[in-house]
Design goal:
The chain has 352 residues and is an all-alpha fold. It contains twelve helices and two strands. The protein has one domain. It has a two-stranded antiparallel ribbon.
Amino acid sequence: MKGILVAGSVATLLSFLFTPALIRILAKRGYGQMIRDDGPQSHHTKRGTPTIGGVVLILASSIGYFASHILDGVGVSTSALLVIGLVVGLGVVGFIDDWLKIVKQRSLGLRSKQKLFGQTIVAAAFGYGGIHFADSYGLSPISLHLSTVRDTSLKLGAALVVIWVIFLVLGTSNGVNLTDGLDGLASGTSIMTFLAFVMIGVWEFRQSCAFAQVGRCYSVRDPLDLAVLAAAYAGACAGFLWWNTSPAKIFMGDVGSLSLGGAIAGLAITLRTEILLVALGGLFVIITMSVIIQTLYFKISGGKRVFRMAPLHHHFELLGWGEVTIVIRFWIIAGLSVAAGLGLFYAQWVVS
């Protein structure tokens, strides 16, 4: 359990210290955020704010995770390494997108098909690797069974599992990317979700079938180490949020939002809580659905809109809500979603 505290503390401290250093470097080079003209007009005051802060999130969380193992003298797990690989891979895709925006001055960065292709390759590699590397109990990092709050009896098979993993990773990473439109919204929401995974990982470890062969046990590989990794991500987000909250001194960019989404999806998959991700990432789902609804209705109705603008937070901006008000209220929604997800997780154990 000490590893959880060390990983979270080290990641928080490093993120808090590294971020202002990155702000100075980016500001000196003039690498600032491009603002689209079709967005809320209030956002034009943010033009030039340093971006690609997600680099700090990846570095701080990775260092925090490995530091906890060095201090504990415990080896790293395959499950955590796969999730870290997923995060770094998606971070590279996001970095390329950000680099095109801020250096090449291409406001939209990578084309949507290019970005999705890169995400798909990274997610497929994670899914394929995850169904291998079984431990002494025969458990691989990613199960071949569909999971809700634990593995179900529905076996998908290797090919379907990889496709399912790609779907989850793309949906979650792009969901976080869409949410990252207001100062502190995505980073604050991610902290809550990661803390939920810490609790789930610890619980699954204490009730692991490796230690107690009872009906309620969990067949999950490396749950405690995944909790350590989740704590590192939560800590990195917390340190970054200090500088990312309104008025933001730095934005995480796609390198941050795609990698955070990948971390959330990766933890949900390896902890066998895939469907529960809908509740734990409830705000990301709501915001993603607002974009889907807006797009479909616009096409069906011949140009009419459900919202003044999508994603949903921009709709409330155009209604006159203040940015801080929107962020805090959306954080409340995110917190309630996480609480509902944890309630469903523990309720299943109680009634089983």
